Amino acid sequence: MISLRNLRLARGAKVLVEGATLQIHPGWKVGLTGANGSGKSSLFAMLRDQLHPDQGDLEMPPGWVIAHVAQETPGLPQPAIDYVLDGDAELRAIEAGLAAAEASHDGGRIGELHARLHEIGGYAARSRAAALLDGLGFLPSDIERPVADFSGGWRMRLNLAQALMCRSDLLLLDEPTNHLDLDAVIWLEAWLRDYRGTLLLISHDREFLDACTTHIAHIEQQRLALYSGGYSDFERQRGERLLQQQAMFDKQQRDIAHMEDYIRRFRAKATKARQAQSRIKALERMERIAAAHVDTPFSFAFRDAPPAPDPLLQIEDGAVGYGERMVLERILLTLRPGERVGLLGRNGAGKSTLIKLLAGELPLAAGRRLEGKGLATGYFAQHQLETLRPDESALQHMMRLDPQTREQELRDYLGGFDFRGDGAGGTSTPATTPCGPFSGGEKSRLALALLIWRRPNLLLLDEPTNHLDLEMRHALTMALQDYEGAMVLVSHDRALLRATCDRFLLVDGGRIQPFDGDLDDYRDWLATRRAEITAAAACPDQAADKAARKADRAQAAAERQARLAARRPLVKEIEQIDKRLAAWNEEKAELDARLADPALYTGPQAGEVPVLNKRQAELAERIEEAELRWLDLHEALEAIPAD
Questions:
Q1: For 310-333, what is the HEC assignment?
Q2: 3-state secondary structure of 518
Q3: For strand 458-462 and strand 486-490, is the pairing parallel, antiparallel, or unpaired?
């Protein structure tokens, strides 16, 4: 097991952990939590023998194989699957040994190595590596591609696959979900539940922590405390502990006040001086209890958005893609004020493409885009951080965005995102420091601050929680719950999706359709889809037939949708004409009755007769035109089959 005894860990003059004593038993899955900068990554470095404790002891079983995710991936020419196989160092050593033994014709050594290869499951290693790549979202055509062909985010997935390939005793994962989408997160969650070694996991995804961990080790105020259960259990236990601590603090404060009052009243009296001195010494010896304090540096809300048109945005029979390759077709989507939509779908299905289309960054290849007058879009993209100017501070970015607003107001606003002061002290990020050296979390906070200041009435968010810690994610969730505009969200953070989305759309097979269910249903849908893909690989002919039937059903459904879409405006206009005709006929009947009354022409209202005649003629003309239009619409409607 891993044992810490009275351990002190510091980076330079900054003490990260003081007096840590705990034990982590084999097979435990421990989530390591704490504020950014509290020392989580430094503890990982200590476990990998890259840092050494300043005081106390760290004991680990000798010979343990430790796996971790590399932070850099060189642009190698080797295939992706071979790169993943490199994660199993013993496998590679056996393969090298076999090559040498075969070259020297050492039959005994060849037999020994093949026996060991069988023991470690080496003959199935390539299929295990392919399964890891598939689970993390790589296509079958990707596994033989050179590592150098992949982008930075996909190389991080390769690094994760390489770490999972290692037959480790201890697995260290630092924010493994940052570069994953929801289906890969769900797959990784299941893989980690089945992992037989000891797991230490740093994550800011509370549902992921709940699903994968048996314990939580939390760093707070330089103290490392171990809690049983997942993250939800930790929050409950910590809340109870803080309540108890506050009650003890309040009681101690009452005792101190009582003793100080006694000392003040009686220390000068000869008969009470000894008792007063005794209380003074008791106060000096008393170990003070700190007040329970849980605070978040983040406090912000969306500014009031401008009045929103209804609908905000419509896409009719749209198609979008890149060049000749269409990613999504037959898009029929209407966004209305206040709607909160989550996008679901497997990796590469087109979720980010749809977000870019809605944001206006991709043009329609076919169909129509209708924007409501007054639409104000706010778009947070996965590449949003790259748009920041590295030589400018958070305050300079805000002043560039809104030069008319007073500097102090901008500073106050940035303080809600924990950009405070000028760096004279504290743990906040200075508002006047150039953002080039910022961490990913700091850059994400700044990008969100800039987006929110623009007051959008349609918010488009593509993985906004990447690099954000638990407190900032919670603050963003609270702000989005109070946001009154419309929102479309892509995220692998299920807690955020559950708390902020009212409905889901499934992006799959080049189509967009409503998803009738919650995130648990989506997890089941993913499992079914994976089983279908596996069956298709095993029985390609049967799968092709099934795919053809599915395509026929999809085409029939699309044709029905097209017919409904064509009939809908005709039916709506007929209903409107019926309402107008009813009102006009009623008014004309009243006019006809008045004009047919002889008393009208001799009485005091005789002067109104020309006006009434004119109105009667107008109504007759309108009724005739509406009836002709009504007949045309019915003819057009009858030409479109109802089903």
A1: CCCEEEEEEEEEECCEEEEEEEEE
A2: coil
A3: parallel
- Nearest-angstrom CA–CA distance, 579 and 583: 6
pTM over 0.85: no
In 345-392, at which residue ranges do the beta strands (DSSP E only) sit? Answer: 366-371, 377-380
Question: Which candidate, 224, 219, 289, places its Cα nearest to that of 6?
Answer: 224
- 8 Å CB contact between 185 and 208: yes
Residue by residue, DSSP assigns 456-499 as -SEEEEESTTTT--HHHHHHHHHHHHH--SEEEEE-S-HHHHHH
In this structure, what token pair is assigned to residue 327?
């990613």
**In the beta sheet, which residues pair with residue 22?**
4
Residues 620, 610: Cα–Cα separation, whole Å: 15
pLDDT means per 10 residues in the chain (643 residues)?
89 85 92 84 89 89 90 84 92 91 88 89 90 89 89 88 93 89 91 93 90 91 88 81 72 77 71 68 66 59 82 92 90 91 89 92 92 90 81 89 89 84 56 82 86 90 86 85 90 90 91 90 86 65 62 70 75 87 89 83 80 87 88 82 67
* Sheet of strand 313-322: strand arrangement: 325-335, 313-322, 366-371
Query: Which residue, chain included where needed, has tokens 């009755």?
Result: 593
Q: How far apart are CA 402 and CA 383, in angstroms?
A: 23
Based on C-alpha coordinates, what's the Rg of the chain? 34
- Look up residue 166 and give its two tokens: 């290692």
Tokens of 251: 């009681």
And the tokens for 132? 């890891």
CB-facing half-sphere around the CA of 273: CA atoms within 13 A: 4
